[in-house]
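<tokenise_the_fold>
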Amino acid sequence: MSKFLEFVAFLNSVFYGDRWFIAWGVVMLLFVPVVIKELPKLIKSIKEAKKRGNSK
């Protein structure tokens, strides 16, 4: 249990310590491929919704 608490304290110091922006930046970079993959679908659905709204 002690090792687990040390690991949690380490993670806490990484994500909420002096250089928190680096750790959170790395986490955000992991989501970039997902966003790039889904962005065209989102844009297409927005355009289609706009067309439906204008045709009424």
